Fold:
Amino acid sequence: MPPAPRLKVTLVPARYSALCQSLGLTEEPPVRFVTNGKPGKFLGMYWPATNSIDIFCNFASIESGRLIHAQGELIDTLLHELKHAHQKQLHGSEWYRKNVVKAENEANEYAASNRHLWRGVVQLKRVQHGSAFSKLSRHASRQMV
Ligand SMILES: [Zn+2]
Structure:
């Protein structure tokens, strides 16, 4: 069994629906938070075939930082991937491959200018582990390499 995450990430369904609506999405892409993801902040992935989003959460790196900063990055990543879902809806699934730079710029700009509006879409909470904390932290770091 993987070590228990020290941060718990949850999507707030009503707010997520409002976000998808504001973007003009006709379908809400399911979001999966992968807690044993690759190291380095939050990494996101939009899957056109299933119209779904994976967010890889590096809990070890968040822990040393501030929670509010981590939440900002998490929202940023989610908004970025949602914009890719929007691009697929507008232009079809082949468009991204031929317009990678434009697509990435659009997604970055959308995330940067909207992140302050949608913080409440994702909740990030610390999970208490008492004295086992540092031991779990080392274990988690190895798992994510
Ligand atoms: Zn992207």
Summary: The two ends are 16 Å apart (CA to CA). Residues 131-145 have pLDDT under 50 and may be disordered. Residues 7-143 form one domain.
